[in-house]
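Structure (tokenized):
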């Protein structure tokens, strides 16, 4: 074989290796038994510190690709940067790779040494996890992104399990007479379940839920639900608090229009700051790499 042919052959091998995903910085290929979690979360200073991300630039959100392996090792491919208007991407994305070990349980603990990082996830069920603060509370997102991580659909049966959480104490201490929750969710599945009129190409819905309470007794009174797809809609009615269902006696559920089963909408209360949309059978929705099904408390409203 001529020398120039040998060089061309070697170059072809190198290019093929990179194309197959073996280059540094690309997500590992999924193997049997791996669990892949994906999400887009806010990029607040506490989560940046946990992940060991140091930057002076503008960061709006972080896109996660987290791989959990059966041997209790993990890799996290994190992209972050300033959001590009009217898209799901960044003006210019940055990469941050983590690798290390995790300890499973009701709370998963992740530790990376190079680079140094540590974070925790509350397991809600087999498909949905939520990032925790350093003192063990649910991290509170904003009107754009929440802190849920969602299992990439791999043929696994979607769990109907609800988390065994006990948020009652802090909820009873909350004396606010108006509770406002904001967020964005995937569109089509939720719209279909609740008979919302959306376009076939709808990929997100922006939400605001305002829950009013009696100023003396703090009992639920009325609500206002605002949605934005291509146009803004607003509805209202009565709401109620459900404490416990047969599948999970500890669950706290906010239910809009409890007297209208065909129109009612339910949320699982994770704590006083974060609520999750529930299906009609009270199971959790599973989000995607762009949006979760969480709404986050807006303390400025």
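Design, position by position:
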């Amino acid at each position: 074989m001529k020398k120039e042919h040998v060089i061309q052959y070697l170059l072809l091998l190198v290019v093929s290796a990179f194309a197959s995903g073996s280059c540094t910085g690309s997500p590992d290929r999924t193997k049997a038994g791996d669990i892949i979690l994906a999400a887009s979360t806010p990029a607040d200073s506490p989560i940046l510190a946990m992940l060991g991300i140091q930057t002076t630039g503008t960061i709006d959100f972080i896109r996660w690709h987290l791989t959990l392996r059966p041997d209790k090792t993990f890799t996290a491919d994190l992209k972050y940067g300033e959001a590009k208007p009217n898209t799901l991407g960044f003006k210019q994305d940055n990469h941050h790779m983590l690798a290390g070990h995790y300890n499973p349980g009701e709370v998963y603990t992740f530790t990376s040494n190079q680079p140094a990082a540590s974070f925790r996830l509350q397991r809600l069920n087999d498909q949905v996890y939520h990032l925790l603060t350093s003192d063990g509370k649910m991290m509170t997102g904003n009107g754009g992104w929440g802190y849920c991580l969602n299992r990439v659909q791999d043929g696994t049966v979607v769990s109907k399990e609800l988390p065994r959480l006990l948020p009652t104490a802090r909820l009873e201490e909350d004396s606010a007479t108006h509770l406002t929750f904001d967020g964005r969710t995937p569109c089509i599945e939720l719209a279909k379940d609740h008979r919302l009129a959306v376009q076939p190409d709808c990929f997100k819905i922006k939400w605001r839920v305002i829950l009013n309470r009696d100023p003396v007794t703090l009992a639920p009174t009325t609500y206002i639900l605002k949605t934005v797809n291509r146009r803004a809609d607003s509805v209202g009615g009565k709401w109620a608090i459900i404490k416990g269902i047969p599948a999970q006696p500890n669950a706290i559920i906010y239910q809009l229009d409890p007297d209208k089963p065909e129109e009612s909408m339910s949320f699982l209360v994770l704590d006083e700051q974060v609520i999750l949309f529930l299906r009609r059978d009270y199971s959790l929705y599973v989000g995607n790499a762009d949006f979760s099904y969480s709404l986050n408390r807006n303390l400025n409203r």
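Reviewer-requested clarification: Residues 1-27 have pLDDT under 50 and may be disordered. Helices lie at 3-22, 45-51, 168-173, 188-193.
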